[in-house]
Every structure is written in C-alpha cells, then in structure tokens.
Design goal:
Blueprint (H helix, E strand, L loop, with lengths): L2 H48 L11 H28 L18 E5 L6 H10 L6 E3 L2 E3 L3 E5 L4 H22 L5 H12 L3 H7 L4 E3 H7 L5 H18 L5 E5 L2 E4 L1 H15 L5 H6 L29 E3 L2 E3 L1
Antiparallel strand pairs: 1-4, 2-3, 3-4, 5-7, 6-7, 8-9
Helix pairs in contact: 1-2, 1-3, 2-4, 5-9
Length: about 325
C-alpha cells in the first residue's frame, strides 16, 4: 500500500478517535444521570410499598443504551481501520522520487516524500513503538515529509537502508497483527540450533556489545577461546546477509539492530519462557556464564543460506571449509 493511502486511513483513525472521545464524554454524563434516576426509582418503589401499592415506573435508559452502542461501534471501527493500516504496512510503498539518492559531506542522505507530508501515518507508526517523531530505526529517521539516512557514503548504501527501513516497518505490522514474521522465526530457530547459542544468549538483547564484554562474561582466557566470539559475528554476517541481527559499529563493537531486538524477543518467548528465565535474561545487564564445551561444527540448516552438508567457518574474516 502506498504511504499516501496509509496517511488517509490514519487521518480517518484520528478523526474517529476524536468522535469516540466526544461520545465517551456524553456517555459519562448519561451514566451519571442514569445513576441518579435509578436511585430515585428505588426510593419511589419503597414509598409505593409503604402505600401498599406496586410501583410501575421505570427509569428511561434508552438514550444511555444508544450511547453505549455508539461507543462500541466507534471502537470496532477504529480496530478495523488500524488493522487495515497494519495490513498496508506489511508491504509499504514509499512516495519517493525515482532518482539516485545524494549523499552529502556529512555522510547523510535526505529523501523527500512526494506530495503532502504524512503526519498521521508517521505518528501512527511511532506510537506503535511508543516513540517520538522522527522515528529512528537503525540510524534511519522517518519524518512526516522525508527520510533521513545517516552514516552512509554511497548511494547504494542509502538504497539498502531504505529497504531495511521498509522491512522493519513491515515486521512491526506482522507483530501488531499477532502474526509470525517468517524472517524472525527463521533466524530465532537458526540461533537456537547453532553452536553459537550460548554466545547469543549471553548478549541478552542488549543494545551495544563488545568482544571484551563477551570475553569477560564467558570467562574466555585463551586466544583460541576468544576466537569463537569473533567467529560468531563474522559467520553470522556472512551466512545471514541482510538478516544479520547486528550492526557493526567499529572493530569489535556491535549494536543490536531493530530486527535483532525483535528476534531476541521472539527467541525468549519461544525458547526461554518454558525454562523460566526469559524475563531474567531480558532484565539482567551482565551475568557471568561458564564456558561450555566446544561443540562439533554446526550442521544446523538455515533455509537458503547453509545446507546440512555444507559446513563452513570463517576465521578472522577468511572462509575455510
């Protein structure tokens, strides 16, 4: 769905929410009046009994019932509109010019949207993450009228980052719709079956991680032991390509990508929840873990990347069979 169409739906959601709030205020007033009428009717009923008569009167609550029905209808309409937005975000099309992006001297590229600003759509996406505007995902900023890509040197890098931004927004939609994102499922399963599992679990979904952090937390003393940390990042980047869950910040320093944070959340829910340690792993900053015995070379299959009979490892950036 085109971004402009999503903007129209999001504007309708905003308008409907305003109508809902007005109807809720009306409902609150009617409920207060209904409470008063009900108490009066109860007193009159007791007085009627004292008079030896049956009280026939009943408070009129039709207006209250209608207001409650209106509130329910507004809520259902908003729910359906939001579902339509998320369905559209699963395959989002940006309204951007068909031209090669320019990168300025600050290693930044600004891509303006065609047409009017998408204020409602960007606000909707940001609110899904409880974020402000601009929304920043992996050093790419989404504004109502533009996308700003930072830390890039070549136009092709800008294009790749735009693709990642669109993918991340799509993944948000999958999660909001309570559907399983196939990429997240694939990488979570791969990491659980890989012989680097204890390293991934030691990262614990932290935003920033260094080689030295992992050396210390896993008590890795020798160069042979420490090489496994380097190979963990090198192999993953080589095998997973655009599904690599980290961003390389500098030699030995990595940042968990937005996609990586979603993989970690799914990993915890799928593999650690039953062990009763998912929440502990999410909350802990640093936990020292013992070194596990070296496993045999992994043969876990990652669809389209590593077949069961093709075992490879990369040592310091060089691939060996």
């Amino acid at each position: 769905m085109r971004f402009a169409e999503i903007e129209r739906i999001c504007e309708e959601i905003d308008s409907t929410k305003q109508e809902l709030e007005a109807k809720r205020a009306e409902l609150q007033k009617l409920e207060s009046e209904a409470t008063k009428k009900t108490k009066e009717a109860q007193m009159l009923e007791e007085i009627a009994k004292l008079r030896g008569k049956k009280y026939e009167g009943e408070p009129e609550l039709e207006e209250l019932k209608k207001a409650k029905k209106d509130v329910e209808d507004y809520q259902e309409k908003i729910k359906e509109l939001e579902r339509g937005v998320f369905e559209g975000l699963k395959d989002l099309a940006f309204d951007i010019p068909l031209e090669v992006p320019r990168v300025d001297s600050d290693e930044r590229s600004i891509i303006k949207f065609e047409g009017d600003p998408c204020n409602y759509a960007v606000r909707f996406i940001a609110s899904t993450l409880s974020s402000g505007i601009p929304l920043e995902l992996d050093k790419t900023e989404l504004h109502p009228d533009k996308i700003v890509v930072t830390n890039v040197k070549e136009p092709i890098q800008v294009v790749e980052r735009l693709k990642i931004l669109r993918s991340n927004i799509g993944r948000l939609a999958w999660i909001a719709l309570q559907e399983k994102d196939p990429d997240i499922e694939e990488i979570a399963d791969y990491l659980h079956g890989s012989n680097y599992r204890e390293i991934w679990e030691t990262v614990k979904g932290r935003r920033m991680i260094t080689y030295n952090d992992l050396f210390f937390e896993l008590s890795l003393k020798t160069s042979e032991e420490q090489r496994r940390i380097r190979n963990f990042f090198t192999n993953l980047e080589h095998l997973l390509k655009d599904k690599f869950p980290f961003i390389r910040v500098s030699p030995g320093v990595y940042e968990l990508a937005f996609f990586g944070s979603l993989v970690w959340k799914r990993y915890c829910d799928k593999y650690l929840a039953e062990e009763g340690i998912a929440e502990d792993l999410r909350r802990e900053a640093v936990v020292e873990s013992p070194v596990k015995k070296e496993k045999k070379p992994e043969i876990a299959s990652l669809n389209k990347y590593l077949s069961s009979n093709e075992v490879k490892e990369i040592i310091y950036g060089k691939e060996v069979s």
